[in-house]
């Protein structure tokens, strides 16, 4: 097959290995400097509490969101839902409690407005004028009559029902609007949420039986930060334990395990140090990068120690152990680490900044692990008092029966497994792009339990925002524009996905009614622009601090904001609603310019946008990785051949994922590119071992047997270590990390099966075919 280069390749590798070992104390000193430098650089890292880190500034959906918030306001918020034991939020005692919590909420940091059932503005007629007061002026002294009036007024307002109170009056929400400076968000947001939780604890102690659920954008931001850090703390111990167990069982040497652990810890520290030098904070994705680096670094170290174990049989000199192991494995290890780094670097095609940073950090960590594996680890082999095992490792014998079965069954294994792979890959047709940032947290998180509890009873955080543009300053007073806007609001309320709609048109209808003696027949929009402007002026003049309409009407009064609440909607569902809304607006409000936006909108569409970009990244990774392998073996055909066992795992894994869940989130969309470099590792080591056998003149079948004996057990161990590490990471309750780890683990497991069961038959078939062709020519 022309695998590998000249017969002198191994000799050159041996000379390079000897030169590396001649400077063993230098590598120890450099490793110490790496630890000190990376540790210093990483010491300044902080965790960024912001759900919007997933949106790049040039993301068109983010651009539209920024423009929308520039027109109206970006309000950070906390939502507290109360569920009283008696099931009646309009009971005088409960209204008193709501009023008390409202007052306490004003004492929280960064508050600009608190909206509750007791202080929501209530409009009353006063002759030809209006009077605006709190819904319950004195909650602490609310009488049964005042409570009954509040019930009737509140449940009769569509802008309050399902937002502040459910239709039966059993649950009520308090909305706390904030302006967080975000100068030091790593301190501001945790401090704010700590005070919110303290308020919950205090109220719970004073009011037994009352249930308080908390959500809101600030609570979500805090959860994004704490989820990643909690995962890192919770999973670090189990992951290291699993890796140590796998390595210990494979190497059966405490000192060898120490060497591997030293390499993976230093590599992980190098990744964190690079992030510190980059000046970027940690986030809910990059906080797990050290665990990924540690998991991915195990394989190369195990291959070195597996080579040391083989060299022990040939020589009693520990320098020979290190030299032979390094000479035989440095080539495949280098190719494997470089291709892994390439795979993760292609995450820079992602439209989401955390995944770009994650890919870069992991790539740096893997390359650091490569350098440490080729320098520090051989040096440790010569310095540590490793016990010699003069007999061949018994584990190698386990590979011989497998090799025989694979060789004997190659004629049906390859087509049979190819057929199964094709069948599994058809599950890709079941994949749909779905993202819901509220479901990134599983039920182990209090924030997820609170979100679900609130959304089952009131509107949640999934909102679709429509800035309705009139096209000119002051245009919102135009009766024709308002009529079209009100018609759109009514249409939205009639849609099955929509639970509630908020719009200033509802306020204008109530104002018009109250300005005309509370005549229900006049619960409609004012008839002319002057009447509209006057009604809004009188209303805003009567409002208290922080209660103006700046979050519903822009400064130039050219646009109004319409907010639709969408509980538990899917990405497909929001797309369908947007398309229907666009058609309705085109047919019924051709003069209105608008584009849907909102945080939920951007999150729900990001996986679809990212998948398109990652297809390009994956394609580039395929070309680069196959080219690297072809150049390394000096045979481009081998680069192409390597794609078979390397593409099959991703296709099978995504097919299984499609059948099992069907949903591809933002995290899952980057897995193909990132794992492509990982799965190449086993292929490269098997190809290198096969090539050595062929260079020595072995028949293809014997070369396969030799490859199984030389690297089979090491491949099984490293895959087991990787799979176990990813299995631990898959226990993350944060779906972005858990899904990525689960699919990665599945992919590399399938990759080992492809390398053991499909690749040998393919190699034998190609070499036998080549020999037959040469024989015919001769």
TrEMBL record:
Membrane topology recorded in Swiss-Prot or TrEMBL: Multi-pass membrane protein
Main location: membrane
Keywords of the record: Cell membrane, Membrane, Transmembrane, Transmembrane helix
Domain named SSD: residues: 261-383
InterPro entries: MMPL_dom, Mycobact_MmpL, SSD
Top-level taxon: Bacteria
Transmembrane segments: 25-47, 242-275, 287-308, 329-349, 361-386, 412-431, 614-633, 640-660, 666-690, 710-730, 742-766
Membrane recorded as keyword: yes
Family annotation (PROSITE patterns): SSD
Location in or out of the cell: Cell membrane
Pfam families, sorted: MMPL
Keyword Transferase applies: no
Protein name per UniProt: MMPL family transporter
Lineage: Bacteria, Pseudomonadati, Pseudomonadota, Alphaproteobacteria, Rhodobacterales
């Amino acid at each position: 097959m022309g695998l590998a280069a000249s017969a002198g390749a191994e000799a050159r590798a041996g000379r390079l290995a000897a030169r590396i070992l001649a400077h063993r104390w230098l590598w120890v000193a450099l490793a110490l400097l790496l630890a000190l430098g990376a540790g210093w650089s990483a010491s300044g890292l902080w965790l960024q509490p912001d759900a919007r880190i997933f949106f790049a500034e040039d993301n068109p959906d983010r651009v539209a969101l920024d423009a929308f918030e520039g027109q109206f306001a970006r309000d950070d918020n906390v939502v507290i839902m109360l569920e009283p034991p008696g099931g009646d939020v309009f009971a005088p005692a409960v209204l008193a409690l709501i009023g008390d919590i409202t007052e306490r909420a004003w004492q929280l940091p960064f508050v600009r407005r608190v909206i509750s059932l007791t202080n929501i503005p209530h409009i009353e007629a006063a002759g030809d004028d209006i009077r605006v007061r709190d819904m319950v002026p004195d909650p602490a002294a609310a009488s049964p009559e005042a409570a009954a009036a509040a019930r009737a007024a509140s449940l009769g307002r569509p802008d309050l029902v399902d937002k502040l109170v459910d239709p039966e009056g059993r649950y009520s929400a308090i909305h706390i609007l904030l302006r967080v400076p975000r100068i030091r968000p790593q301190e501001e947001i945790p401090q704010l949420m700590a005070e919110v939780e303290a308020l919950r604890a205090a109220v719970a102690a004073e009011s037994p039986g009352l249930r308080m659920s908390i959500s809101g954008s600030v609570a979500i931001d805090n959860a994004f930060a704490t989820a990643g850090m909690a995962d890192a703390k919770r999973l670090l111990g189990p992951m290291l334990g699993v890796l140590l167990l796998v390595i210990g069982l494979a190497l059966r040497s405490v000192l060898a395990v120490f060497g591997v652990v030293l390499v993976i810890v230093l590599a992980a520290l190098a990744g964190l140090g690079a992030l510190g030098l980059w000046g970027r904070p940690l986030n809910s994705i990059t906080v797990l990068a050290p665990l990924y680096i540690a998991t991915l670094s195990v394989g190369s170290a195990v291959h070195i120690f597996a080579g040391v174990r083989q060299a022990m049989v040939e020589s009693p000199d520990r320098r020979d152990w290190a030299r032979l192991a390094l000479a035989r494995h440095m080539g495949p290890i280098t190719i494997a680490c470089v291709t892994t780094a390439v795979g993760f670097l292609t995450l820079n095609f992602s439209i989401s900044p955390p995944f770009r940073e994650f890919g870069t950090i992991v790539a740096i960590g893997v390359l650091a692990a490569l350098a440490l594996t080729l320098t520090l680890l051989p040096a440790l082999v010569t310095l540590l008092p490793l016990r010699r095992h003069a007999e061949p490792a018994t584990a190698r014998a386990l590979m011989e029966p497998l090799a025989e079965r694979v060789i004997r069954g190659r004629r049906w294994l390859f087509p049979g497994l190819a057929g199964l792979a094709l069948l599994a890959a058809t599950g890709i047709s079941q994949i749909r792009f779905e993202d819901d940032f509220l479901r990134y947290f599983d039920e182990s998180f209090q924030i997820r339990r609170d979100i679900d509890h609130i959304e089952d009873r009131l509107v949640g955080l999934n909102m679709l925002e429509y800035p309705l543009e009139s096209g000119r300053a002051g245009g919102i007073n135009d009766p024709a524009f308002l009529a079209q806007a009100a018609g759109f609001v009514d249409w939205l309320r009639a849609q099955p996905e929509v639970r509630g709609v908020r719009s200033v048109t509802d306020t204008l209808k109530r104002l018009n009614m109250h300005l005309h003696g509370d005549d229900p027949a006049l619960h409609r929009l004012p008839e002319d622009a002057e009447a509209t402007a006057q009604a809004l002026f009188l209303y805003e003049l009567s409002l208290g601090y922080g209660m103006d309409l700046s979050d519903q009407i822009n400064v130039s009064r050219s646009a109004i904001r319409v907010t639709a609440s969408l509980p538990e909607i899917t990405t497909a569902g929001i797309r369908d609603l947007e398309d229907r809304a666009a058609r309705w607006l085109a047919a019924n409000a051709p003069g209105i310019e608008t584009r849907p936006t909102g945080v939920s909108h951007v999150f729900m569409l990001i996986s679809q946008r990212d998948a398109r970009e990652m297809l390009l990244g994956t394609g580039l990774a395929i070309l680069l990785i196959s080219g690297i392998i072809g150049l390394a073996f000096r045979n481009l055909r081998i680069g192409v051949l390597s794609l078979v066992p390397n593409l099959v795992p991703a296709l099978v894994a995504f097919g299984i994922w499609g059948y099992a869940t069907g949903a591809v989130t933002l995290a899952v969309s980057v897995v193909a590119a990132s794992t492509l470099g990982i799965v190449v590792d086993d292929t490269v080591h098997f190809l290198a071992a096969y090539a050595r056998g062929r260079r020595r003149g072995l028949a293809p079948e014997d070369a396969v047997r030799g490859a199984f004996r030389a690297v089979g057990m090491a491949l099984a161990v490293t895959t087991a270590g990787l799979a176990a590490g990813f299995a631990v990471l898959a226990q993350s309750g944060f779906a972005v990390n858990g899904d990525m780890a689960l699919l990665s683990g599945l992919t590399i497991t399938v990759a080992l099966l492809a390398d053991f069961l499909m690749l040998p038959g393919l190699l034998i078939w190609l070499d036998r075919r080549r020999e037959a062709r040469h024989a015919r020519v001769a």
